[in-house]
Write a structure and sequence with these properties.
Layout (H helix, E strand, L loop, with lengths): L2 E11 L2 E12 L4 E5 L4 H15 L9 E7 L11 H11 L11 E4 L1 E2 L5 E2 L4 H10 L4 E5 L3 H4 L6 E5 L2 H8 L12 E3 L31 H13 L3 E5 L5 H6 L10 H14 L14 E4 L5 H5 E2 L5 E2 L1 H4 L4 E4 L7 H6 L1 H6 L1 E6 L2 E6 L3 E6 L18 H9 L11 E5 L4 H8 L8 H18 L13 H7 L8 H8 L5 H18 L6 H11 L2 H5 L4
Helix pairs in contact: 1-2, 6-15, 15-18, 16-18, 18-19
The structure holds adenosine-5'-triphosphate (ATP), magnesium ion and zinc ion.
Magnesium ion binds next to helix 7.
């Protein structure tokens, strides 16, 4: 006589979750336990964990032939989050847990050998998938509860042990365990799945623009970048403030709306970079990568489980490449796809995953290998050749996509002293961000019947034909073209930046001032004199 038990779990492919059923069949025969359904190595280890966890929860293990299948078999399954569903299915088949009712629970947790429940990555996208599939409740490890609770419209239960999960599945009171249990019933189960904002967004701002003294041009570049979605290149001597500036860019971007917050949180949940105290990311993230980062660390990858990389952790925020010329050619090339398509598709033996990667790029570089090329004292010892070769490393794949280039010179003693004496204060992040917001609205209104929202996304061809500019405003650009310091491609970028400047100035279209300012961002001195014009 065979008996059957079933429990639901979620398989994640990138950020999309697919419902999976753990189905257990107990038949008479020799005691054995087989697990099928395309499991990866992690899943075969799950067999041993499930058995030990059940026994260590003082629940007898079936002394018969036991087969567990994760269905549908055609779906790739990764990770350890199926343990709990497998255990519940086995115990149902063995009559230790009552069969699932109509409002079935989804079980998402790893089991410890001692019968404890362990948190897993990617709980937020998993719970979201369960809610969307119409499940009424999910059971997760206590440490994953706050993250799970970000999804409304589904009841979330966080437990510490398998015994507690079994009690829940049986509809019995949940037994006490060494530490306190936090069962939490959330919102009405009829509401559509969405996100609850937590925390006070105003209190979570990062470093402020008011800390930056002087740097008029670089500050304007940050504002333009945040408004039009233009990637930014900062070139300057060590200590000139490049990192300081880059870190302040996320604060100028609009806060994440509900959908974006969910998306960003899901990425960080999978990457394992969610802050425990802040389970929902509501502010644009900042992700800095070092040039020693591997390609998988940069764009995502992994052998057993595909994890998002830095480009996805920077999704809806800022990706900062410090010392950009030091990055290897392969790494720089790998950035091309996400910059073009605003997502990455990663194919490995264990499957294919797509992650969002819509970020603002800030690349920083010293002007030359010794770093002193732009210093006032002319202390640079590099040859002109090694200087242009140094910046030339980022020219092809990256620089082409960057609309804004700024030379950052260290602030002079006068500015520093005037600030120390309580002189003219720099504008705050809140002040600049308000202008950015208004300018973005203006651009969105103009672009409302196009597929684009930000000026950096609009093809220049479209800009030129849809909103042609007067020839008088283009005089400076014409001269630059004629003397060969500006290419046709460069002109396209100048136009886009000029539109953003017009949006910031509240003008209907760019005039000569906006074009010339945009031109100066294109032809900053390093490039003008160097090999990259
Ligand atoms: N404009 C500025 N206003 C106020 N402080 C500044 C400014 N520029 C630089 N500083 C001070 O100098 C420090 C160094 O700046 P930062 O680390 O951003 O330079 P960097 O260009 O990134 O240098 P490196 O090339 O060495 O990475 C800052 O932490 C800050 O204290
Ligand atoms: Mg730095
Ligand atoms: Zn030098």
């Amino acid at each position: 006589m065979a008996s059957y038990g079933r429990a639901s779990a979620v398989a994640l492919h990138g950020l999309s979750g697919v419902m999976v059923q753990a189905e257990a069949v107990v038949t008479a025969g020799l005691s054995r336990f087989s697990l099928i359904g395309l499991p990866d190595t992690g899943l075969s280890e799950s067999r041993d964990r499930v058995r030990a966890a059940v026994l260590n929860s003082s629940i007898p293990w079936p002394q018969t032939s036991l087969t567990v299948s994760l269905a549908p078999a055609s779906i790739r399954k990764q990770g350890s989050g199926f343990d709990l569903a497998i255990a519940i299915a086995v115990l149902r088949a063995d009559g230790k847990v009552r069969p699932a009712g109509l409002s079935e629970t989804v079980f998402i947790a790893e089991l410890g050998l001692d019968g404890s429940l362990r948190p897993v990555r990617g709980v937020l996208p998993s719970v979201l998938a369960a809610a969307r599939a119409g499940y009424a409740s999910v059971c997760v490890a206590e440490d994953n509860l706050v993250e799970a609770e970000q999804v409304t419209g589904v009841e979330c239960l966080g437990v510490r042990t398998l015994r507690q999960a079994v009690a829940h599945a049986n509809g019995e009171p949940i037994p006490d365990e060494p530490s306190q249990v936090v069962p939490s019933l959330l919102k009405s189960a009829s509401a559509p799945p969405s996100v609850v904002a937590v925390g006070d967004p105003a209190s979570s701002h990062g470093p402020d623009m008011s800390d930056v003294l002087g740097q008029f041009e670089a500050r304007l570049a940050l504002e333009v970048s945040a408004t039009g979605g233009h990637h930014l290149f900062l070139c300057g001597a060590p200590g000139s403030g490049k990192t300081m500036l880059a870190e302040r860019l996320p604060g100028l971007l609009p806060p994440l709306d509900e959908r974006a917050a969910l998306e960003v949180t899901a990425v960080h949940s999978l990457a394992g970079t969610l802050h425990p105290a802040k389970p929902l990311v509501t502010e644009p993230p900042f992700c800095a990568v070092h040039h020693s980062a591997t390609v998988p660390a940069l764009v995502g990858g992994g052998s057993a489980v595909i994890r998002p990389g830095a480009v996805s952790r920077a999704h809806r925020g800022v990706l900062f490449l410090d010392e950009a010329p030091e990055f290897g050619r392969v790494a720089l090339d790998a950035l091309r796809e996400p910059i073009e398509s605003r997502e990455v598709i990663i194919a490995r033996n264990c499957g294919v995953a797509t992650f969002p990667a819509d970020f603002l790029l800030v690349a920083a570089a010293n002007p030359c290998p010794c770093g002193l090329a732009m210093s006032a004292h002319g202390a640079c010892t590099c040859s002109p050749r090694s200087r242009s070769a140094y910046l030339g490393r980022i020219s092809g794949p990256l620089l082409d996509r960057i609309d804004l280039r700024v030379d950052v010179s260290p602030v002079g003693p006068a500015e520093l002293l005037s600030a120390a004496a309580g002189g003219l204060a720099s504008e705050s992040t809140a002040q600049v961000a308000e202008r950015v917001r208004q300018a973005r609205d203006r651009a969105a209104r103009r672009l409302r019947e196009t597929p684009w929202r930000l000026n950096a996304q609009v093809p220049a061809r479209f800009l030129r034909s849809r909103w042609p500019l007067g020839s008088d405003s283009l005089e400076g650009a014409e001269q630059a073209l004629e003397c060969g310091v500006l290419t046709a491609r460069g002109l396209d970028r100048v136009l886009r930046v000029a539109w953003t400047l017009a949006d910031l100035a509240g003008r209907d279209r760019p005039g000569r001032t906006e074009i010339d300012t945009a031109l100066s961002f294109r032809l900053s001195t390093t490039f003008y004199t160097g090999a990259l014009a």
